[in-house]
Amino acid sequence: MGMPKANPTPPLSHPRRESIDPSAVMRIKHLQLRAKTVVEGFFNGLHRSPLHGSSVEFSEYRPYSVGDDLRGLDWKRFARSDRYFIKKFEDETSRRCYLVVDQSQSMGYGSLEYTKINYARTLAATFAYFLTLQRDSVGVMTFDEAVADFIPARRRPGHLHQMLGVLSRPLSGKGTDIDAPLKQIASLVGRRGLVILISDLLTPVDSLRTNLAYLRSRGHEVGILRILDPTEVNFQLDSPSMVIDMETGREIYLDPDAARDDYQKAFQQHQEQLQTVCDSLAVDLYPIVTNQPLDDSLFHLVQSQQRRTRPTARAGMLSRSASSRGAT
């Protein structure tokens, strides 16, 4: 989808903290173990950083607002804090999240010892593992030129293992059709939830705009993680070459200087168009380069949800508000 700038701002800006080398994570063959390693590193990093006071615990309460049913007041909590809190029931605290993962052939590219799809799968598995720990219902959809696999959002024993099995399947399709999965998610998911699209976004901006607008009109929160290889961000070609389009199989002759200039212009223009679309629809867009720590994405989404959430609401996807923590 969006085309990164020649020297883009790193997708996550946060206080210095120890992060896990993605190369080390990719050497772990078992996908669930990879996800567990990233999540544990994320929590450890929060504890060691200046953000250690920012909780990512699951919230079972929310501050009282005028008009709330007084029968939901927690009087014991009021006695301890002299503040009113409402007990949140299961349908409030459990949210549905769908991970929509691009498995087209372009995701098979990689200049490192691993490819974009290896990174994307690990990222999706990390979110699935993390959200499962938060007692949220998680589902997965994979796609290339059509929807490949779909697992509805659930929360039950064995569900995580089923999702990781789908994420581990080899690439098969060629092109990318982002319309189909977003339309299907919008039609299948009636209850408001969170949709996380993980893709290199090699797709026209207009089709993306239409489908994102439809998702947002149905009340869904949307986050997009654009997976990019370092060579896609800083394109270099040392000599005239014949290259092959991974999705069409077409051979293309490239002159180094002309190709670099044309690519960077198109890349930046596309990225700016994507950013404009996402900003207009209140969709979070994160360009992520595959040599960056995987736990950055967790941090990014948690922080963005905290910024979007009013003090009276559940702090986005995962976090409990600071005022709620202070009341305990």
From TrEMBL:
Residues 94-278 form the VWFA domain. Residues 305-328 are annotated as: Disordered. It comes from the Bacteria. CDD domains: vWFA. SUPFAM superfamilies: vWA-like. It holds the Pfam family DUF58. Signal peptide: none annotated. This is VWA domain containing CoxE-like protein. It comes from Novipirellula herctigrandis. The lineage of its organism: Bacteria, Pseudomonadati, Planctomycetota, Planctomycetia, Pirellulales.
